[in-house]
Amino acid sequence: MQETAFAAASPVFTGRREYIVEHFVKLANFATVAKYSSLFAQGLLVTVLLSIFTVLIGFCIALVMALMRLSDIRPFRFLGIGPDGYPREGGALAVLSRFNPISFIATTYVEVLRSTPVIVQLFIVYYGVFGMFDVPTFTMFGFIKFNRFFPGVVALGMNSGAYLCEIIRSGIQSIDGGQTEAARSLGMSQVQNLRYIILPQALKNILPAIANEFVVIIKESAITYTIGVQDIMSAVNAVRGAAFVITEPLLVATGIYFCLCFPTSKLIAHFERRMSHGDKR
Amino acid sequence: MATSGSLIRVEDLKKHYKGGAIKALDGVSVEINKGDVMVIIGPSGSGKSTFLRSLNLLEEPTGGSILFEGVDITKKKYKDANGKSVKLNVDELRQKMGMVFQHFNLFPHMTILENMTLAPIKVKKMPKDEAERKALALLDRVGLKDRADAYPIQLSGGQKQRVAIVRALAMEPEVMLFDEPTSALDPEMVGEVLDVMKELAKEGMTMVCVTHEMGFAREVGNRVLFMADGQLVEEGTPEQIFGSPQSPRLKDFLAKVL
Hints:
Chain A has 281 residues and is mainly alpha-helical. Helix content of chain A is 75%, strand content 1%.
């Protein structure tokens, strides 16, 4: 047989191959996993719902944070004018006059959330914050436990809000300053300028980046199984506990995650190309 | 009280940077009357644009005053007719000053008609159908009625600038400010924009125009200002400025551009 000939030529490889067949995956074990397919189906739904809600919450947080970061609120502005009537060029008073507490809060939020592990944030939110009071324990769709799902969404949403904040901020800053000048010279207020001129253009530009964040969240949401959210990873864990197989359910999970993320990112890339094409018309 | 004909009175306007080391505007005083077509010329970096942009507070001057309809708009508060202190509403002020930019600054995500009706509807609270009717009438005047539903990206530079002019006119301003309106245009499109501006001047619109178009300055302007190094060097009728320039700075400038 071809395999034997190959084995004679390369005994080391065959050894590894047999090892893989014996110890890494067994086809029979996939049949075991198939018995738990409803768990994976539920897990898939949970993962998708979790990701959608996370991006929605994350986007709302991010929009507020981005506007806070771009705000121009300087309570100590008056300290920046020197005795000669000109703005100070340097020194402690000049620094203090530029201090924007609102922007400072948002920047702190973004930097802290971006510089700490998601799992730490998840545990703080679940055990620390939601541990302080009773979260209603009803189930959605008959299998999503709200008291696990909701803290998971909040924690991931806060994390993704920090990343989306930077995306939105760069989107707003990418709009030409002439747009604001034109809007303001027509008598529009700062809020009207933001609402009708800046945000519609900025959001259109960053839509692909937001969709990419959605793909990232699908993958990142896997860690919520550690607080008992019944997502795809939790289905893997259930199979491991019940049937004592781990590699095969993990491969199934890999397949599901890949089938979710790969087409989504290709779809985004497609629309991104089409939209940029429209701009050059 | 402002004099009857005076619309804007600028007194000793200053814009200094870096502790006074850079003087973009260094004490400019001028009076703009109703119906004036004031053309500002001068070498680049002379403070022409800064001066123009200060008039509707896109630039905040660091000194001096601008009296618009008798109110000093460089101060945050002013006293009304009854002597009561009122906070200056910059948005309301800007409605009375239309501005046209070098790079048009049309809103690319809106159609031409939406570009023109947005401010009247949202700022002046004009009913939508009335705003659209007025916008279409204005577009008709500049020969672009059939492009009302197009997007800015589908228009040529000259068409964009004509839309930008009527977009500002849709707010029915007291004065129109033009910041080098033809500088970003291909040469063959300059004429169509200048024609619109000439017509506007003929109708009696008060205009302040920063431009490099000496022909326009001579033909349409009733007053010409020559600025250099942040200062108003010479002022006069087009005949005076172009026919018998006094200062060496102006003579030098005209020798280069004419």
